[in-house]
Amino acid sequence: MDSMVRARPHELPCAACRTLHRKCSYGCMLAPYFPADEPEKFASVHKVFGASNVIKMLQMVEDGRREDAVKSMVYEAYSRLRDPVYGCTAAISYLQKRMEDLKGQLKTTTEQFLESQEQRDQLLRILMDAPCLKQTYLPASSVVHDSGGSFMFDNMIHDGHY
After folding, report:
1. Cα 99 to Cα 89, 102, 111, distances in angstroms
2. Is the Cβ–Cβ distance between 134 and 118 less than 8 Å?
3. Does residue 121 form part of some domain?
């Protein structure tokens, strides 16, 4: 819903006007954001911020951003009612901590992956440079396949060495 105000005739009063025991007029600023079928939204916002403060805040916000402002107020009000001391700050802090933990896990996992790749590459170099392997098991036509961490010698398998 944008800045357009819904017409009031033949409709139920918005949740704000109903809660405040007011007549919901045609130009009701709160009607687009607090419909009659969602009274708990306005009740929470009213309890935390107060109706006059909600109206003042909405007047300070440009029309196109009011819906986002109301969503934010509703979220903050629900959070404050759930956790009167920290409100939405508790959720934000938890998510920030979780994000830092996940960044650390990603860094560790990336380091382990790179270390595993390096070990694999070293083993492949050792195997390819081993003189006894070249002379004994690998004819000149042998092909070494590297498929992301595992390798096999085609001719060794076909010749019965494995």
Report:
1. 15, 5, 18
2. no
3. no
Query: In this structure, what are the phi and psi dihedrals at residue 139, rounded to the nearest 5 degrees?
Result: -65, 165
Number of domains in the chain: 2
Residue type present at position 84: P
Q: pLDDT digit string (tens) for 35-51?
A: 999 999 999 999 999 99
pLDDT band at 146 (very low <50, low <70, confident <90, very high): low
Which of 24, 47, 82 is the last residue in one of the domains?
82
Residue finishing a domain among 82, 106, 139? 82
Please give the full DSSP string across 31-69, using - where no structure is assigned: TTTS-TT-HHHHHHHHHHH-HHHHHHHHHHS-GGGHHHH
Domain containing residue 148: 131-162
**C-alpha span between 62 and 53 (Å, rounded):** 16
Collapse the DSSP code of 145 into the 3-class scheme (helix H, G, I; strand E, B; otherwise coil) and give the result.
strand
